[in-house]
Design brief:
By secondary structure, the chain is of the alpha+beta class. It is 18% helix and 32% strand. Strands 6, 7, 8, 9, 10, 11 and 12 form a 7-stranded mixed β-sheet that branches. Helix 1 packs across helix 4 and helix 5 packs across helix 11. The longest helix has 14 residues. It starts with 16 loop residues before the first helix and ends in a 6-residue tail after the last helix. It holds the Pfam family Hexose_dehydrat.
Length: 481
């Protein structure tokens, strides 16, 4: 007896999405023009969309209160987020025990990009958006970038534009990516956001502060200092850039090796089964215990009138800010923020094996991860803080990254982390080609192709947010430097 219900198929023969993405990524000049007016458009909107940020004592944060028993910082509504303490036991780590503040924001936000064909070319609807923690004002952001508190209007602000396109999305076609991904595991406790890309049959009107752009144009902007925000980068990384629908060149140059890295049929150092087994081994064998504790009772941390900081002056501070904003759903508010101490280095080492580019990933343990280990960049550190750890050793591969000759540096741009919770969190993002020999069975590192990483990005909790940013940067090198 057969089931008469209609079945659906995802046929790769009907203009594969990978081919449409690749065609858009090739175009710096599209049907709607080029980027020659981008700086003027950005500056013009910036005169209306702005933030004025003043540091204020933590006790003076309007709408926030300090728990009299624990010292935790929380909003009076019980919504948004809480800053509390964390006690970590990690035997075998350079620091086997420590305590720290951490942000607990359990609600799931939406990071969504609308796409649509314009004269047959895939375009993305991007938003010029400013956050209080941005070091340099406006950034290019996803179509929708909203916490659940934002889009349910807990703060009584304006409705979030275009939100309707990202609700109940699986009742209609056109979902190119939809996955919950983690955020910074050293600063957030098990934070996740829904990363979504939806393709419409035709473009909708771009409201003030929004702009339809090709992927090639977004990739060009990824090469500009602190222009494309973290939320846009993580969503872009989830797009299916790799796959059988894209032509692969026969050359022996870097770009050819990069494009072959996205080919599911290309050779790889490790099989997908070996990679998954290694991740499971690392998660099973990493002995880490995390316990919530009172913020006011943390060892080696002190609270002053204007901040909570580590006694050594390292890692990060928790500060208070008062914000006046234009061009946002809410015009005035106060909040705590994390301010890192120093600029970080976030880098992939890459190497060609049999003409296929591979990325050296690190199985990272961070106390805020939901599943113990996620794959991170080869290097992810703030050298100043790392030097204060016992032994003061240099992070593995940091010298290889920073001392690389110019011809081996494929990407080098300062980008920032999420400006809604982090204040001036700038990192130098690099992609460096190397001949470094890393043992095949190294317990903490593996060489992976871009296609293997893209396969993992279809699932939650495999690739951390810093590595996802670097994957978006690698994509930007497909058709231009």
């Amino acid at each position: 007896m057969s089931d008469s219900r209609a079945l659906t198929t995802d046929s790769p023969t009907r203009d594969p999405v990978e081919r449409r993405i690749d065609a858009s990524a090739r175009l710096r000049t599209g049907p709607l023009g080029d980027l020659s007016d981008f700086t003027d458009w950005f500056a013009d909107y910036g005169r209306r969309a702005y933030t004025h940020v003043d540091r204020v004592p933590l006790e003076d944060l309007e709408g926030w209160e300090t728990d009299p028993d624990t010292g935790d910082l929380r909003h009076h509504t019980g919504r948004f987020f809480t800053v509390h303490g964390l006690e970590v036991d990690h035997p075998g780590a350079p620091v086997p025990q420590w305590t720290q503040p951490i942000i607990n924001q359990p609600e799931i936000g939406i990071l969504g990009i609308l796409t649509a064909p314009v004269d047959g070319v895939l375009h993305c609807l991007m938003q010029a958006k400013v956050e209080p923690g941005n070091a340099e004002g406006l950034q290019l952001s996803p179509t929708v970038q909203a916490t659940r508190s934002n889009y349910t209007r807990v703060h009584q602000g304006r409705p979030v534009p275009y939100l309707e396109h990202f609700l109940d999305i699986h009742s209609r076609p056109g979902v190119l990516a939809d996955v919950r991904q983690s955020e910074q595991g050293s600063w957030f406790y098990r934070k996740r956001n829904r990363n979504v890309v939806v393709e419409l049959a035709e473009p909708v009107e771009a409201l003030d502060g929004y702009r339809w752009m090709t992927l090639g144009q977004i990739h060009e902007l990824l090469g500009r200092r602190d222009t494309v925000n973290m939320d846009a980068r993580t969503v872009l990384s989830c797009l299916p850039f790799t796959g059988a629908g894209v032509d692969r060149p026969d050359g022996d140059d870097f770009r050819s090796a990069l494009l072959r890295s996205g080919d599911p049929g290309a050779a790889s150092v490790h099989s997908a089964r070996e990679i998954l087994g290694w991740i499971t081994d690392r998660r099973t064998g990493s002995d880490i215990a995390v316990r919530r504790v009172a913020l006011g009772a943390l060892r080696d941390w002190s609270r002053t009138d204007d901040r909570i900081r580590h006694d050594a002056g390292a890692f990060f501070d928790v500060i208070g800010v008062r914000v006046d904003a234009g061009g946002r759903e809410v015009h005035r508010w106060s909040q705590p923020m994390i301010e890192p101490v120093g600029e970080g280095v976030i880098a992939f080492l890459v190497r060609r094996f049999e003409g296929v580019l591979h990325v050296l990933v690190h199985a990272r343990v961070e106390p805020g991860f939901a599943d113990v280990v996620e794959l991170g960049p080869t290097v992810q550190c703030v050298a100043e803080s790392h030097a204060r750890l016992p032994g003061g050793t240099t992070p593995p591969f940091l010298d290889e990254v920073l001392r690389a000759p110019a011809e081996r540096v494929r990407y080098d741009t300062v980008l920032s982390e999420e400006g809604g919770r982090f204040f001036h969190a700038l990192n130098r993002y690099l992609i460096v080609e190397t001949d470094q020999d890393v043992p095949r069975d190294h317990p903490d590192y593996r060489w992976m192709t871009l296609h293997q990483l893209s396969d993992l990005l279809r699932h939650s909790h495999y690739v951390n947010v810093q590595a996802r940013s670097l994957i978006a940067c690698l994509h930007s090198l497909y058709h231009g430097a």
